[in-house]
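Sanity check. The docking grid for pyridoxal-5'-phosphate depends on where the pocket ends up, so I'm generating a full predicted complex first rather than guessing from homology. Inputs follow.
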Amino acid sequence: MNEYAEITQMLSKGTVVQGLDFNNPLVFPFFPATAFRKRSLTEAMDASISPFSYIRINNPNREALAEVVNYLEQGEKSLIFSAGMGAISTTLFALLEPGDEIICNRNIYGETHRIMSVILKKFRISTNFVNFDDIQNIRDAITPKTKLIYSEVCSNPVLHVADVPEIAKIAHQNNCLLMIDNTFTTPIAIKPFTLGADIVINSLTKYMNGHSDVIGGSITTSAELMKQIEAYCIRMGTSGDPYASFTMLKNFGTMHLRVRTQMANAAKLAKALEENQLVKKVNHPSLKSYPQHELAMKLFEHPERISGMLSFELSGDIKKVDEFMSRLSFVSYAGTLGGIHTTLMHPVSTSHKEVPVAEREAMGITSSLMRISTGIEDADDLIAEFNYALEVLA
Ligand SMILES: Cc1ncc(COP(=O)(O)O)c(C=O)c1O
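Predicted complex below; grid placement will be based on this.
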């Protein structure tokens, strides 16, 4: 089927899983069963005859979803987890040993920062947080103990862009693994595995599911690394819930349409906010003023196909921000992202609340920074909504 476009091929994936005959329903059925019957001990002992056993170990809904994720990310193997954080923590526990070091982009999601700076530290795995905007900082931070380099493609919430192919070269020259979080960008915009990343994580809760109704995460990697990761996932109990996988597979059908609209809306809104005198600063890599615009243009096909996320700095105190928010009609404040509805969030009081202030400020996260996750609304309505609400700052 190679002659068809990605969207066309993707819709034919995740319809069959080995060992189950469903009489061809048009959509993949839901399997809540915690276990599958075995007709004989021979069948129980031979996974090639009957691959499904117990819900924590394997499940048809997770497998069907993993096939689609794997197709989109172009990896060797993908696995579905309970959450993006489940995918990240399980993978780091599976691949690292006490005494190992991580080099992590200092511009990173707050909870990922906490996993490394607090939880892994307890197990004598240390993390050096450096600024990946200058990749020389990565070379300088490498030690003989460095085992893994970690970054988001576009960081939460300031959208710093990581030069994935160049970072992959540094990782491999130094026998390190490169793990990349593609949550903000999705495989619709970029496929880090094809650019040299060894492990790709997605919080499926966000753009890929897109409907703000279930939680899940994925890891895409080589078959060899997946053996280790899967063994930890089974024992740590971080496998994805079947209902979430069932729901996500349905919602994946519209992923191209949704995500492309969201990314185009973000670029259009970023441009409009930049033109608004009442906004101090706008962060979106599509903007020519964005410090890493050129790098973004090297990595992404089009300025309107980078990320549905943007952030901006408001002038004024909290009271003014409250007034600004009270003037919004269809845009809601919510502590998530990637859904079809545009949402707004204040990183200092939510996602990055626990990151020490100095580190937060070094990331560019100030108390006047607001993060926007653009939905699929009409772009002109969205621009008018923000411009109207911003008038309170005049
Ligand atoms: C960039 C990024 N990675 C990972 C996660 C974690 O995902 P989840 O909430 O599905 O655990 C998030 C959550 O916001 C995120 O923004």
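Relevant for the grid: The chain has a mean pLDDT of 95.
Also worth noting: DSSP finds 15 helices and twelve strands in the chain.
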